[in-house]
Fold this sequence. Notes:
The complex is a heterodimer of chains A (about 230) and B (about 300). Chain A contains 7 helices and 10 strands. The model of chain A is unreliable at about 225-228 (pLDDT under 50). By secondary structure, chain A is α/β, with parallel strands linked by helices. Helix content of chain A is about 30%, strand content about 25%. In chain A, helix 5 runs parallel beside helix 6. The longest helix of chain A has 16 residues, at about 170-185. The two termini of chain A are about 25 Å apart. Chain A has helices spanning about 40-50, 75-80, 95-105, 110-125, 140-150, 170-185, 195-200, and strands at about 1-10, 15-25, 30-35, 55-60, 65, 80-85, 160, 190-195, 205-210, 215-220. In chain A, strand 4 (about 55-60) and strand 5 form a beta hairpin. Chain A has a domain at about 90-155. The radius of gyration of chain A is 17 Å and the shape is globular. Chain B has 10 helices and 4 strands; from the N terminus they run H-H-E-H-H-E-H-E-H-E-H-H-H-H. A 4-stranded antiparallel beta sheet of chain B has the order 2-3-1-4. The radius of gyration of chain B is 30 Å and the shape is elongated. The model of chain B has no long low-confidence stretch (mean pLDDT about 80). The interface of A and B includes residues 52, 78, 89, 102 and 108 of A.
Amino acid sequence: xxxxxxxxxxxxxGTHALNGLSLEIQDGEFVFMVGPSGSGKSxxxxxxxxxxxxxxxxxxxxxxxxxxxxxxxxxxxxxxVGVIFQDFRLIEHKSVYDNMVFAMRAVGxxxxxxxxxxxxxxxxxxxxxxxxxxxSELSGGEQQRVAIARALLNNPSTIIADEPxxxxxxxxxxxxxxxxxRINALGTTVLVVTHEKDLVNxxxxxxxxxxxxxxxSDGRGWYGRRTQ
Amino acid sequence: xxxxxxxxxAREGAYNMFSHGFMSFAAVGITVACLIIMGxxxxxxxxxxxMLEDMEAQNQMLAFVDDKSWTEEQARALESQLRAVPNVADxxxxxxxxxxxxxxxxxxxxxxFTGLPDDNFRxxxxxxxxxxxxxxxxxxxxxxxxxxxxxxxAAYEDEAAGFITIRNVAGVVCVVLIAVLFLVSVFIIANTIxxxxxxxxxxxxxxxxVGATNGFIRWPFVYEGFLLGLFSAVIGxxxxxxxxxxxxxxxxxxxxxxxxSTVPFSxxxxxxxxxxxxxxxxxxxxxxxxxxxxxxxx
Lengths: 228, 298
């Protein structure tokens, strides 16, 4: 479960990115987070993956309180969260399979576990035959599916996708969203940060809208119920 | 740390080293250069120290037999007592006849000393010391032996003090210079490895994103630094060997400086190898750790 309570984030340069933001996402939910540039979406993601600390307020992610988390605990918190970015962040000189091995090794997985888990995840995203390819030999949509498979490798309870379709055409974007929907159906909490109105409106999901560091709307559909 | 992690770290370290060939080449080149500069300095210091020790060994004391009337047999009987004195490395008996002959030979042609009888001279011992820094104490011990007595030991304490000062100053200068060179080497290697680390910041970011601990991220870099240091040590050792032999040969064949004796490399190659390996690995690992630290924050 994700819970942000009265979170304020002020950067050292004086920018107020979040101004008392509160939000709760239950286990197994699928949530879109939308909002204009500078509304605080990226700051929320950085907070949720422990990249930055809140100036005020409380942040809970899958049982970890980020207010008083110790530095050594952060990697263990991150293992409960799979992150997907717009630019895929794959290692170009490694094959798809080796990118996956790299991610599993990084959390200390053994060879047996690796041999079992990687084919399962590649199969889940429909890339079971592309393991030997380099990322540059794949289309944008396929690269994003590799990134999703990698995010799933360590069996996280939450997937956070930051503009996952930003580099894709509408057809591939829809494919990726359907894939995330399928992953959600398997029980994983999914939080998608996007600004693609048409895409969001194709799914009947909870939509949280941010503006100036606060939640201004929270409900189903693009124009959800205004909270403030 | 599990067995497959150790194998993985070692393999990743080796792979990274070869996959970033140019940077590895630069790091090894710089480490080799630093090791050779440090090694050359150390070997010069070792040779200078060996020469000083030779000169020190030639710095002898003379212990005169107190009674002129003693026969040679009586005087020779003191030898075992002299050898038993702490810090005495060797003793050499010089009879009054030998001393008189040497004296006359030195002043040959001088009428004043012609016909000087042998019994004007006393039997004596040339005493060689283990440590000339303890000369004063040894002199006191020797004067305490019956048959020698107080005031009968001639010691060249000023000369000995001069040798000690030279050795101490040379030692301090050497240690300071080697320490400075070592720190400079670590700094250069850290910066070189920092460049390779910067090249891989994306990989590090991915590892952090998926939940790798700092220790796990650090280990392949530590192995890489270790291997770079080891390679540098091996290459540096053989280059140093070749350089040393070439310089030693040219000194031996030069008419003006061939009096300088060099310590054979074969008598110290083991020390040089161990020091090079240790310094190389320390520089490599230290440089890696210092370079990776910045990327592990946050």
